[in-house]
From TrEMBL:
InterPro entries, A to Z: EF-hand-dom_pair (IPR011992), EF_Hand_1_Ca_BS (IPR018247), EF_hand_dom (IPR002048), FAD-bd_8 (IPR013112), FAD-bd_FR_type (IPR017927), Fe3_Rdtase_TM_dom (IPR013130), Fe_red_NAD-bd_6 (IPR013121), FNR_nucleotide-bd (IPR039261)
Membrane topology, as annotated: Multi-pass membrane protein
Protein name per the record: NADPH oxidase 5
Gene Ontology biological process: defense response; superoxide anion generation
Amino acid sequence: MSVDEDSRWLEWVKKQFETIAGDDKEIDIDEFKTALKVKESFFAERFFALFDSDGSGSISLDELLKALNLLIHGDETDKLRFLFQVYDVDGVKCCVCFVPTGSGSIDPDELRTVLKSCLQESAISLPEEKLDDLTLVLFESADKDSSGSITFEELKAELENFPEVMENLTISAANWLKPPDQEQKKSQTPRYLTRAYWQNNSRKLLFLCGYVLLNLMLFVAAMLYHRKGGGWFMLAKGCGQCLNFNCTFVMVLMLRRCLTWLRATWVVRILPLDQNILLHQIVGYAILFFTLVHTAAHVINFAQKSQSGGFSLWEYLLTTRPGIGWVKGTASLTGVILQLLICLMVFCSSTFVRRSGHFEVFYWTHLSYIWVWILLIIHCANFWKWFVVPGFVFLLEKIVGIAVSRIGGLYIVEVNLLPSKVTHLVIRRPQFFQFKPGDYIYINIPVIAKYEWHPFTISSAPEQPDTMWLHVRSMGQWTNRLYEYFRQPESQAVCPKRLATSLRKRHQEKRQQVSAKSGENHRFCNIKCYVDGPYGTPTRQIFASEHAVLIGAGIGITPFASILQSIMYRMRKHTYPNCSSTGCENVKDSDMRLRKVDFIWINRDQKSFEWFVSLLTKLEMEQADGEPEGQFLEMHMYMTSALSKNDMKAIGLQMALDLLAKKEEKDSITGLRTRTQPGRPKWEKVFQKLSEENKGKVHVFYCGAPALAKVIKAQCEHFGFNFYKENF
C-alpha cells in the first residue's frame, strides 16, 4: 500500500471500530461475532482469542490494528502462521508475537473439529463417515513424516500444492474492515458507448433505430396534416398516430407461433427475434408515453376551447355533449378509460409486481388488452385499419392454440417433489406433440386454477418418447398451490386410486429416468392438464453453434436439461450408429455443428443439485474417459453458499475436498466426477479460458436471475461472444 492508501485504510478501520465497539471502546465476543457475520461460533472464538493478545476478554483498537496489519499487510508466512494457530485448537497463541502456549501441532481430532466447522460455515451437509474420510485424506497428505501430527512447516508445504489458495489468503467475512475500493469510483466509459456493445447488439440497435425513425415519421406526418388545428391539437394528433401503430405493433411482438416459425428461417439473422420480450416492453413504455402526452395535449386544448364558451372542460372530458368521436361522441370518455387501463397494465407489468409472488396480478390485468383494443376501435376512426391484419393473425393464433391444447388429452402421470420446493411433473406426451430442446409451453391445470395459464420450459429431451418433463419452482401463488397440492397425503389429492396400479406398472421401467425421491415425495397420478405450445426460444440456435456455453442459475437449468439430454442422445447415436435403444431412433443431427459445450450451473445450496444430478451423472458416463481439454462436454458446478478457497474459514475443507475427489474420482457434494467449486465464478477468468480454447465462435446461452445476466452480458461484449438470454 502507498502512504495515502495506508492512511485511508487506518481511518476506515477506526470508523468501523467505533460503529462496532460499545461505550467502553472495546469489542467483546458477541460484538465480534456480529461484525464478522460468521455462521459457526468456532471461528469467531478462535479469531477473537488470537486478536485478544492480552487475554482481557475484549479487543481494543490497538489490538485490532495490530492483528489486521498482519492479515492485510503481512507476508505469506505471517498469514499461514495465523491459519496454523486457528487450526491448533488446544493452543491459544498471540497472533502478534507468535508465542506458543499449546502443543504446536495439529492432531487428527483437532483437524476434524476444524473441518466440521468449515462445513457448517459453507452450509454443506455431509455424513459423519464422509467427514472422517475428509479428515484422514488431508491429514495423511500433510503429515509428511507420519508422526501423527501436523507441524507448521508441514502445513505450509501442503498449502504450496494449492497455489490458488495463496493468491489472496484472507478472512473474507471481515470485509467490513476493508475500505471501499476507490478504483470502482473512477470514471469509466459507459458500456453503451463502447464498440463491443454496438457490435454485439447491432441487430437490436438497428431495429430500434428503424422503430424510432418510423415513429418520428408518423408523428411529423400527422402533425402537418392537422396543422390548422393549433399547436396542442397537432401534438395530440401526432401522438395519436404513433399510438395507432404502437398499439398494433405491441401485439405483433407477441405472436409466438409466428415468431417460432420465423426462428427457423433466414429472418432470424436480420431481425432481433430473440429480443421480442424486451421490444414488447419498450413498445409498452412508448405507448404509456404517447398516451400521457396525447391526453395532456387534448386536456390543454379543451381547456382553451372552454374559455371561448360552448362547453366546460369537464363536459369536454366526461360527457358526449361536444360530439367528439366517430361513435356517438364517445372519444373523450373512451380516452379517459383507456388512459386508466394502460397505466394499470404498465404498473402491474413492472418487475417488482411480477417477481414478488404476485404473477396473477400481472396475468389478469394484462388481459385488459382485449378491452383496450375494443375501446381504441371506438375511440379512433382509423385504428381499425391498423388493427385488422395483425388482429386477424392474433385471433388465428389464439384459435389454433385453443384447438391444439384441447386435442389429445394430456395427463400428469407422475409427480416428484424436489428440494427447495421444486415440483417435477411428468406429462404423458401425445404423438403429434413435437418440440425442440429449450422450448417452452403454457400449461393449465384445472384442479389448481381453472383459467390460469403459466409458461414453463420443457426440461426433457425431444428424443425422449411418451413423456415430457416440467420442473416448476415455487415462487408465486400458483406455483405454491401446485406444490402444496401434491404435498398433501395421496388420499386427499385427486389422484384416482383405480389407475394407480396400472400406472405404476407402466412407469416402473422409467423410474430410473426421473431424478426424484421416493415415498411421500413421489407419486403416480392421472390429472388432466392442457398445454399450449411449444414455443421457440434463443436456445434453438444452440446446435448451429460451434462452441456453446450454457449458464444456468438455480432453476434456470431447465432449458439446458433438455438440451443436455438431447446432446446425450446425439452422442450415443454418433458413437453407436446402429443404436436401437429408446430415443436413438428419434435423433436428427443434420443441423449439429457443435464442437464443444461448456455447461455452468450455479446453485445457492447443496440440495439444489439434486434436481438433475442423475441426468448429469449419465452425461458423464456417456463420455469417453480422457483429458478434460479433450472432452466434448465440460461441466462446471458452483455453490455460492460455500466459502471460497482463499478464505481462512474454508481452506482446510476445500483442500480436503480436492484431495478426496482425486482419490475417489467423484465429488463429495454432488457425487459427480466434476468437482463442485465454492463461491461464485470469476467470470473474467472463465471467459478468458473459453476464448483461449479456439473451438470456434462462442455463443453464450443464459437462463436465470436478471442481475447476473447483466454481468455475463458485459463479459460477452468484452470478449466478443454472442449472448442469448431466455425470455418468455
